Amino acid sequence: MSEAVIVREAYKHFGKRGVPLWQRLRQRGSGNGQPRVVAVDHVSFTVREGEIFGVLGPNGSGKSTLIRLIATLLLPDGGEILVFGYDVVRQAMQVQRLINRVSVEASFFKKLSPMENLQYGARLYGMGGREIRRQVVEILTRLGLEERVIYRPMEEMSRGMQQKVAIARALLSRPRLLLLDEPTTGLDPRSKREVQAVVRELREVHGTTILLTTHDMAEAEVLCDRIAIMDRGRIVALDTPGNLKALVPQQNGDLPTLEDVFLALTGRPLTEEEPESGG
């Protein structure tokens, strides 16, 4: 099996004030009076083609910055990142043709409907016509949207429904690599299950490689073939969900959880922190 993503010693810092204490303790002088905040700290891993690979960690751990580096939205300060053999810095255009990204802050033309937004997005990829309209309806209804909602303005929709439209927009282009940055944040349990079912279908039917960031332990365990646990800009463990849980001894006969694994590796619970600077 070939490698879809190769990350070697990726490093990214930001020069911002007002950063969390743990980052200030690790800051290095930036030479301009501002602290240097290390968001991704010499991270290395590979993602196999057709794999669902998870990056699990609290908010502020560097997950979103890592996704932006792979998506060519940020330039690494060090190291190397390859997507299907293309360098994200020197060959960004080739990388962008192979990927799509869904994040928690997806943007739309709010006065337009999901159909209009998705048709506009499809045209950016050179797609159009009746077939695209059919695919838009098919994908959105599979994600749980009623057909009548597809033609109403986005501003009338809940945040969870808008997130489903963002996922549908990414699916339309049939990317070889789909980057999902906290894709189910803000969704109700039923909607989460619908999105997770589509993620599995993408891999099983279309062979899509998926890199997923989350702080939802259940989501990581149910979806991912392998999980990298990320904390304070570094990967502290990487393995299958089962092998990660095997790192922690059972307590009173109870099987350990990924929360137990994170606690054992970092000395603290997997709780939300401040958002990472610049990411």
Task: Classify the fold: give the CATH topology.
Answer: Rossmann fold
Low-confidence stretches: none
**Rg, Å, rounded:** 19 Å
Q: Main sheet, how many strands, which sense, barrel?
A: 6 strands, mixed
In total, how many domains does the architecture comprise?
1
Secondary structure category: alpha/beta
Distance between the termini: 31 Å
Strand order of the largest sheet: 7-8-9-4-10-11
What is the helix/strand order? EHEEEHEEHEHHHEHEHEEHH
Q: Tell me the helix content.
A: 25-40%
Extended strand count:
11
CATH architecture tag: 3-Layer(aba) Sandwich
Shape, please? globular
Determine and state the CATH class: Alpha Beta
Average pLDDT metric: 84
Structural summary, described in words:
With 279 residues, this protein is α/β, with parallel strands linked by helices. It has one domain (51-74, 93-266): P-loop containing nucleotide triphosphate hydrolases (Rossmann fold). The chain has helices at 21-25, 63-70, 92-98, 114-124, 130-142, 159-172, 189-206, 217-223, 241-245, 258-266, and strands at residues 3-14, 28-29, 35-48, 52-56, 78-83, 86-87, 99-102, 177-181, 209-214, 226-231, 234-239. Strands 7-8-9-4-10-11 form a six-stranded mixed β-sheet, sandwiched between helices. It has a five-stranded antiparallel β-sheet with strand order 2-3-1-5-6. A hairpin with a 2-residue loop joins strand 5 and strand 6 (86-87). Helix 4 (114-124) packs across helix 5, helix 4 packs parallel to helix 6 (159-172) and helix 5 (130-142) crosses helix 6. The longest helix has 18 residues, at 189-206. 39% of the residues are buried. The mean pLDDT is 84.
